[in-house]
Amino acid sequence: MSSRSGxxxxxxAALAASACxxxxxxxEQANVAGASNASPDEVSPDGAVxxxxxxxxxxxxxxxxxxxxAPSVTFFDAAGKKTSLADFRGKPxxxxxxxxxCAPCIKEMPSLNAAAAIAGDKVHVLAVSQDMxxxxxxxxxxxxxxxRLVPYGDPELGLSLAYKAxxxxxxxxxxxxxxxxxVSGARDWADAESTALIAAS
Length: 201
Fold this sequence. Notes:
- It comes from Sphingomonas olei.
- Residues 64-201 form the Thioredoxin domain.
- This protein has helices at 3-18, 54-57, 103-119, 137-144, 158-163, 192-199, and strands at residues 30-31, 61-62, 74-76, 82-84, 93-98, 124-129, 152-153, 166-167, 169-173, 179-184.
- With 201 residues, the protein is an alpha+beta fold.
- It has one domain (3-199): Glutaredoxin, CATH 3.40.30.10.
- The strands form three sheets. A six-stranded mixed β-sheet has the order 2-10-9-5-6-7, with helices on one face. It has a two-stranded antiparallel sheet with strand order 1-8. Strands 3-4 form a two-stranded antiparallel ribbon.
- It is globular, with a radius of gyration of 16 Å.
């Protein structure tokens, strides 16, 4: 077993053990990184464990990674072709990492869809599913009528690993692929504050 496939296998096991259920309150997060034995409420936005509760940081803007380059990992577009964040340079990118099994992710998805409509062609809004079964994503989008979002998939969890993500996680990148800010946990992406943040990017 290669180290890559071994990592994905271990990550899948961690997901199965710690995945958030449909009843989890929106303020909690699913621990996708699986890098420690910490529970989701022990992970702070900078990845440190045990310093703050998830409830105290969920939905807050975190600029501690500002200026970092986007990871070069690939994921799949709606047609099943590989793409990467580099393919979207030239415009700011609002990258959302989510999954169909994550209740906070599902809760914020309609507002992300609305944010995509508000941003229009000025910002790429990418909702990249971290489901290991890509075929679940398009039917979910159709059922939820998320018409402004494209069903991207990252079944090998490359973005989650690169960002040490607790789902949902949203990262704002500038037109050159450099991080501006990120948010761990659900947020209303169509409210006035979020709309202004996205527009200013």
